[in-house]
Structure formats: structure tokens, C-alpha cells
Fold this protein.
Amino acid sequence: MFTRILIANRGEIALRVIRACRELGVEPVCVYSEADRDAPYLRLADQAICIGPGPAKESYLNIGRIIAAAEVANVDAIHPGYGFLSERAEFAQACRDCKIEFIGPTPEAMARLGDKVSCKLAAKEAGVPIFPGSPGALEDEEEAARLAASIGYPVIIKASAGGGGRGMRVCHNEAALRSNLRAASAEALAAFGNGAVFIEKFLEHAQHVEIQVIGDKHGGAVHLWERNCSVQRRHQKLIEEAPSPGLDRAKIEPVCQSAVRLITQAKYHGAATVEFLMDQAKNFYMLEVNTRVQVEHPVTEMVTGIDIVKTMIRVAAGERLPFSQRDVQLRGHAIECRINAEDPARGFMPQPGPVQTWHPPGGPGVRMDTHVVAGYVVPKFYDSMVAKLIVHADDRRQCITRTARALREFRVEPIKTTIPLHQRLMEEAAFVEGGVDIHYLERLLK
Ligand code: ADP
């Protein structure tokens, strides 16, 4: 096992990794920006090193400064968390060059599965269900028009290097496709430094279902079943749950097994999430692979009893997976509500500033993953998520009742948060029924 790990992240996920380190007997080291100087979780680390000013480009996204901090602290490994540098192959490579273990895949496996086009090719080989669409990056407009005609409209143009919901365009006919292609490619080049684009079938009514997988360095790999993350706004997930409502194990199991084949064939170690859209007939189409820990990993932890972050650290240290596929048993239901410092009544405008009252919920089945305490000031520089409320119960109905109960206990003042919206959702008939699609929340808020 490692002696010391540097956490190249901030906020709740930095605290989550600190907790995993402590339980493994590893010393956690944090980095922080000037904007996070007073964050209370920094005191839980053995060491905390300032890496620059508030803007992420000058701190959490600065590879040189993070590697310098890792060398000063003399760590054996770096946990990248999610966001920031977690999916940048050049960061994983910089760690390797400095003989620091990157807690995640190799830069090669990350690049192969992180790029949408090469990932799709690998998925096809592994028998993972994918969208009808262009097999690789598009060569020209004529090829795109021919393909779209054979798939049928609508189609969606995506950037091979895209992410965060950016660089996608839905086209309902050939004229729209032709006029959008060049712009999409230019936009992708400007935004991601790679102009490659492809098209695939656009699904009008779909649910977001993703499979959690994890592999070790000895060829071992397992899946931890699925999460349903269909309650989204502008491609940002707001609620995640496991298992997916109304989904037979017999229907999802082959998809889970295909995800395991994909990471095995890619010689991938660490945690990964294979994301799918599921149509109304419960057919699956792979969207992409996230080569890091997900924000919503706790719902899987609650229903499987497996600590994903600790497992990531153990496999990075060279241990074999401490459980087999047969050991992974689902128990009950879990729901995660993302509590963002945003005002839903004003277009989800971010609400940075001081939190004076902070009364988090508790009681049976309630888990709070948050770095916030009363007196904390939400910085303006970063993502607006301030807490994740994760609730576990014996079944989905009881889980919804318990989530509503926990949300009622939760008091945050004076900043506005998504708590009232979550309260409303726990009472909305369609959500309670289960099986809402990815446009449900936007329809509800219209
Ligand atoms: P990103 O990496 O930018 O997040 P994804 O490929 O994961 O891009 O897609 C983001 C979101 O866009 C999906 O969650 C879904 O809401 C929508 N989307 C992507 N592809 C399709 C598709 N083929 N049909 C319908 N919706 C899609």
C-alpha cells in the first residue's frame, strides 16, 4: 500500500478521498487554491499545499504546480478525483514520468476509451451495444449525408474529443446536417484542439443508464451494476439512483458483461463508467466511457456495500480486486440528490457567498457527502455543487419517502439551493412512478 497520496482536487471529492486514505492507513496530502484557503477539510489532511490563485487554470488545472506539490510532499500516488485533470492523459503521463502512481488507468487506456471515436471502435469489438452511426470520424459532407439517410433523421453531430455536453448539434434533415457539419468541426477544433466529428442516431425519448466497472492490474474486472441518471438539466445530472427503476436483471446483465469485456480488452485498470442511453423498448446504446470516479459513485456504494474509492486506491497499489463478481450483491435502493448553490427560480443562477445556516439531515439510511459547514463561503470559481445527499432504503418507494424526509430536515441559509426542487421532485407523480426520460426535468420546469 502507498504511504502518502496527493489529492489533486477540491471540495467534497477531496474529502471523500481523505476518508478513503484514512481507512487504508495512508497519509492524505491536499492541494488548494487561494480561494479554498479556509476550506475546513484541509485540516483533515496531513499536509496542505497552496498551488495558486482561485481560477482553476492557475491552480487545479495546472499540471506543473500539482506535480511540484507532489514532489515537495514526497507522495507515492495522486488521486485526481473527477473533473479538473482527471481525464487528461497528459496528466497521467506526467505522473508516470515523475514515477508517481496515477490512481486511474494508464494514459494509453485513458486515451483509447476517453476519445469518443476510438472508444466506439473498441466498444464494437467488445460487443458493447452502440448507436447506429459513422464507424469513425467523418471524412466529408457527402459521407455524412449518405450515412444519415441510411440511419434516418434526426441525427446528432458530436465532437470526438467533446465533453460536458458541448459541441453537439441535432439535425432533423439533410440541409441542417450539411450546414452544421463545418461549424461543428470548427467549434470542436477551437474548443478541444481536435476537429474530428461523427454522427449517430438521435433518440427522442431515452433514459440515461450507466454501468460502474472496475478493473485491477492483473486482468481482473467486475461490474457493480447500473445507475439511472435521467433527471438532468442541460446535460447536468441532478438525481441519480440505483438500481434503475423497472429494469429486469436479465435485461441489464448482458450490458454489464459487455462493459466488463470492454475494459478487459482495453487493459484498463481503475474505476470507469460506461454510459448508455436506453430507448423505450429498453435497447441500449453506448454514449461514452468516463475514465475516473463519478460524482454519483455513492449510490452504487450504498446498494453494493463496496467502497469504490478505496478499491481504486488498492488496485492502483497493485492489489487484486478484493471481491469477485459473485460477491457483488444488490441490496435495496439508493437515491442521490445533488445540492447545488443555484437559484432554480432564476435559471439556476450560481449563488456563491457565505453559508450562515447549515443544518444537514441525518438519521437512518442518510449519507451526506459534503465539505460545507456553517460559516463556509462558496467560492465563485468552481462548480456550484455543495453537497450530495445519498439515501438508502429497502426499496424505491421507501427510499423516496426517506429522501423527502431528509430534504425536509435540510436547512441552508441565506444562499439559494436546489433543495426545494428536489423536494418537489420527490412528490411528482412521474418521478415517483419511475422511468422518466432525460428531457423530463426541462419539460417540468417550462
Ligand atoms: P458529453 O461527453 O459532452 O457529456 P455525451 O455523449 O455523454 O456527451 O452526451 C451528453 C448528453 O447528450 C447525453 O446525456 C444525452 O442527454 C444527449 N445525447 C447524446 N447523444 C445522444 C443521442 N444519440 N440521442 C439523444 N440524446 C443524446
Observations:
- The mean pLDDT is 96.
- The chain has three domains: 4-103, 125-201, 207-444.
- Residues 131, 156, 162-166, 168, 200-203, 206, 208, 235, 275, 277, 287-288, 438 surround adenosine-5'-diphosphate (CB under 6 Å).
